[in-house]
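Instructor's aside before we start: the two examples that follow are unrelated to each other. I chose them only because their records fit on one page, so don't look for a connection. First example below.
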Amino acid sequence: MAQVLRAAGAQVRLVGKHEQHLSRVRERGIETILLDDWDRTPAGLVVEATGTARGVELGLAATRPRGTLVIKSTVADRVSLDFARSWSTSSRSSAAGAGRSEPALAALASNQVQVRSLVDARVSLEHAVEAVALAARPGTLKVLLEMP
């Protein structure tokens, strides 16, 4: 998502917990910062994509008054939010689903968005159980199943 926003002309700052993950997009010219070093300065547009309840809470806190929070996470846990803060500052939130595939394919074909560095492993379909276990390990971004 950071690559897509940058390709669209946005100034992007990606906040994350893992240096090894941040380095993958920093190579694409995207500003990155570790969560522990983040100054918590609110932004006008925040895209939350951690997949965690805490990430959604931080996303709301990181959205400036009258700003927009886009929640691009699928969070399995319950999320408890202080919407009084959101409403009192006139921020708005939206959930983002999958979009049209044509622009995404064009961005991939033109190398505006590069995803190879986000893949940690390729595993044959016959080893799908091992692939799921690998994908569940902390620090793993993406595991691809290869079909025969």
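Example two begins here.
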Amino acid sequence: MRDKESSKEKILSTALKLFLSKPYSKVSVDEIARKSGFSKGAVFHYFKSKLEIAENVLQILVAKIVALPLKRIIYSDKSFREKIYDIIGLALNFSLKHDLKTIVFLAGLYYELKACGREFFLGMAYDSLQQVVYEFFKENNVSNPKVKALIFTAILDGLSVQCMIASEVFRNNDFVLKIKEEIYNFVRC
């Protein structure tokens, strides 16, 4: 059983790297197989399609790269302000590290899922993160926590895109500190 899991993990790890390096449509199952050291048949033994591979990659991306660090911040002993600052920092650092590749992957995957009538999958992943932020805000007595959680995540999405487009602006620590303070003030008002 462990061999099966490690084989799947290797395929998914390889697929993640490929999806973050070029558009979804430009990644083939042949390439995923070749770069992961498996035959195409072996890849299809574990996954029914490239779309299923991408859905699994998205789950990993959301769980390990976004949700886990987000929860670590939220459940830390830091103050509410520090947590907000750290969450903003998490989003900006991810964007600086991955530039537009993640957006391209998500957009390509969304359109592929939509064409198959499965776009709800991406929405479910996003909703689960929204719920974490909502509960965090509610526990910290933020007014209108549901609305502010939606706006806060939208702000982070927008900042991430801006960060990818104009990364040099977001490498200025003083400027980023001002952004964090303004967002914190919005959440607390």
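Residues 51-188 form a domain with the Tetracycline Repressor; domain 2 fold (CATH 1.10.357).
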